[in-house]
Amino acid sequence: MPLLSINPEGGQLPKVNIPTEWITMVDPCIKKMQEQVQVELRAAVSYLAMGAHFSKDTVNRPGFAKLFFDAASEEREHSIKIIEYLLMRGNLTSKLGHLIKNPMPVKESWETGVEALKDALGLETNVTLKIRDIIKECETPTTKCKDGVDCEQTYDFNDYHLVDYLTGDFLEEQYRGQRDLAGKVSTLEKMMKTQGALGEFLFDKKLLNGEPL
C-alpha cells in the first residue's frame, strides 16, 4: 500500500520542490490544449441538448436521442483524455477551474432530424479544425513580426509526442465520425424526399436498432 503524506498539524501541506526540467511543453501548446478541453465540453453539452430534444414526448425520436447521447459521452471522454495528457506532461498542477467555463449548447431545439445531423457535422468539423490548429501550433516554430519585418522567432520546439498523440488518437476518429454523419445526412434527406415524415420515422427506428444506414 502506498504511503500517504499527512500533515499532523492539519491544514494545507507544504509545497514540495520538484525539478521542472522534465516539463517541456511550451506555453502556446499548453494554452491551446487547455482551450480544447472547453471545445470538447461545448460539443458534449450540445449533444446532450440534442439528445434531450429528441427524447421529449412531443418529438419522440429515441433513435436520434440515443445517437446524440452517445456522442455526448464520447466528447466528454475526449475532454478527459486531454486533461489526462496535460497531467502526464506536468502542465496541470494548479488553477484547474479555468478549464471549464460554463459551456453552453449551440442551440436547444431542431425542426428536423436532418437539421440536427447537419449541426452535429458542424460541431465535429469545428472540433477537428481546432485539433489541427493545435498540431500546426506545436509542430512549427513560431515567429513574431512587426509590420512584416524584424521577425523574431519566439520558440523553436517541435512537440513530436503531442502531435503524434493528437494525430493518432483524435484525428482518425474525427474524420471517420464526420464521414459517418455526412452519410447519415445524405441517407435521411433521400428518405424524406421520397417518403416524407415517414422517412424520418423509419430512419429513427434504424438508428435505435443499430441497423446499417
Automatic annotation (TrEMBL):
Its EC number is 1.16.3.1. InterPro entries: Ferritin, Ferritin-like, Ferritin-like_diiron, Ferritin-like_SF, Ferritin_DPS_dom. It catalyses: 4 Fe(2+) + O2 + 4 H(+) = 4 Fe(3+) + 2 H2O. Signal peptide: none annotated. One of its GO terms (molecular function) is ferrous iron binding. It comes from the Eukaryota. Residues 23-192 form the Ferritin-like diiron domain. One of its GO terms (cellular component) is extracellular region. Fe cation binds at residues 40, 75, 78, 124, 174. It is found in: Golgi apparatus; Secreted. Its main location: Golgi. One of its GO terms (biological process) is iron ion transport. Keywords: Disulfide bond, Golgi apparatus, Iron, Iron storage, Metal-binding, Oxidoreductase, Secreted, Signal. Belongs to the ferritin family. Stores iron in a soluble, non-toxic, readily available form. Important for iron homeostasis. Iron is taken up in the ferrous form and deposited as ferric hydroxides after oxidation. Oligomer of 12 light (L) chains and 12 heavy (H) chains; L and H chains are disulfide-linked. The functional molecule forms a roughly spherical shell with a diameter of 12 nm and contains a central cavity into which the insoluble ferric iron core is deposited. This is Ferritin. It comes from Timema tahoe.
